[in-house]
Amino acid sequence: MIKSSITDSPRNISKGEKDNFGIEPFENGLTKFINNSNTPITIALQGEWGSGKTSLMNSLKRNLSDLEESKYHSIWLNTWEYALMKDAQSTLIDIITGLIQETSKIAKVDETKINKLLNTLWSGVKETSKVVAKNALNKGFDGAGEIVNTFSSNGKSSIGEIRNELEVIIENCIIKDNKQGFIFFIDDLDRIDPPVAVQLLELLKNIFTLNNCVFILAIDYDVVIKGLEPKFGKLSESNEREFRSFFDKIIQVPFSMPVSGYETDKFLKESLLSTNYLDVESSNNIDLISKFSEISNLSVGKNPRALKRLMNSLSLISCINSAKNQTDENDQLNSELELLVNFALVSIQIAYPPVYRLLSLYAGFDKWNENIALQMNLKPLDQQSIEKLNKTEEFDEEWEKVLFRLCENDFYLKKRALNISRLLNSLKETITNSKEEIEDVIGAVISLSSVTNLEAFDKPVVDYHRGCLLKEIRERLFPVLKNKLPDQEISQIGKKVVTNLNFHLSQDVQFKFTSFPKDGKINLYMNTNVWYGNDIGDFRKDLKDHNLFSEFETIVNEYDAHFKTESSIITHNLFDVGEWKYKKINHFHVNFHSDLLLPKPEDFYTEDSIEKISEHIIKLSEFRSRVQEISNKRNSK
Description:
Elements lengths: L23 H12 L5 E6 L6 H14 L5 E7 H5 L4 H19 L4 H26 L7 H11 L1 H22 L3 E7 L6 H14 L5 E7 L1 H12 L7 H11 L2 E4 L8 H10 L5 H4 L2 H13 L5 H21 L11 H16 L1 H9 L8 H6 L7 H8 L7 H11 L2 H5 L1 H17 L4 H12 L16 H19 L6 E2 L7 E7 L2 E10 L2 E14 L4 H7 L3 H17 L4 E3 L3 E7 L2 E14 L8 H30 L1
Parallel strand pairs: 1-4, 1-5, 2-3, 3-4
Antiparallel strand pairs: 6-7, 7-8, 8-9, 9-12, 10-12, 11-12
Helix pairs in contact: 1-2, 4-5, 4-7, 4-8, 5-6, 5-7, 6-8, 8-9, 13-15, 14-15, 15-16, 15-22, 23-26, 25-26
């Protein structure tokens, strides 16, 4: 049965849920280790958010305590539930109370004895609170931390009494029930306030370090670090040992979730098939699934929760696309290439939002250049950095250097810059091998993924069809241009208009239109360029060497003066010089580009807008011709 989403609930082995990540050997190894361990012992399942800690604990619980032949009684405690709407002190005391009550319930302890045990706990806390309150008049204190420290020092008799009573209760229970001990599963420690999590660890150490007891904690070591900062300060080389010593004192066996070793191919295949993103034939394409796996590994990684979020985003996009019931083939994911590109774009959207944002503005990432970098306010590279990057496979091309500069602006992206470059290069290879233009493919697909984009403080994005916008402009613009330029053969280049409208103004003059959302409006980007030459080290020096510098500067000044004085809704940038690498040869082009920013598609279709666009195109063509003359002079020498 086709399902539209993948549940983010932890895996429940008792319900027959499959191991899709190849973690079963680790489950079996931990089960064997715990069954043969001396007690007391505390095991920490360490891992980041969504790495599968709860799923692993579910499996351990089934293997160690839920089966008929199991050796342990078990208690599962979700610390998050105890922490809701409570202060730190109440959270800690309620958790310890809950553990005592659950233990007594399994051991079938008389209610009178349970109440006596809890009264001992609460009396100790009450006396401790008085000491804390008194001290608080003279000095600051950190709430739960002060409670625990004072309780541990002033309430030793209370702690000793509670521990002795619990040890007797547990020992009598396991003898009576022919068990080996009790296992306490403490979940969601990384969802409560870090200082409270650390104080809870200390309380458990003081009260529940008992014979016949195993504690299994789901925790992220980063939570411990944050929780210890009030005590030790920010983590540094000088105090790192203090942080580690605390952890080692509480935890006897650390187990890191083996996320890097997760086998994701099987999960991806089954998820893409079950959500109807792929059909059966495509899901059996080993090379295709391998490509999906490569993309996910370089973006969201192998974190199960991140992978499930990716699957659900893809499924949502498929549902919306299907519900639109569009007939235009440009709005459908019709090929395995488009499915793969969409998968990559959603992965980038989730893992690297700034990169996705840049792709949504400039889909042809293989042509990112200095002009793009300037528009994004990216910090320029010094010569030493450029030389260093030129020696690397991942950042030797111009577009890769723009990507590098984007990553340098963000701490998270900076650490993952190599993965991002490898991902885009893999995408580039896949698209070009299919004999498609990167800009056309990315631009055609990326609008589908925008519905799942979540970026804080974004201005509203105009919902419009890029292909329809360009087609409508073409239908209105071409007759006007032909009327104004009767001697020119104005014609579209290519059969389809998807994300770009390419056309000849004359046999040798080519223009390109594209569009993208910008600042809550629609930006029409108009561009033409002139090839200047190749194997050039320095553009300005080359002009001087060919005695063309003065002529080129005159054109630049006249271009600037004309468009600065012209009153128009079209904005203009000084034309720039772009360097593109093709077959390891540098090619220099002089680029002319302009932008028309309007609120909605209909605004582009008015007679006034079309008139201004046509006049602007003709003027750009005149300046282009003058630069073409310079190029001809340079290359004829």
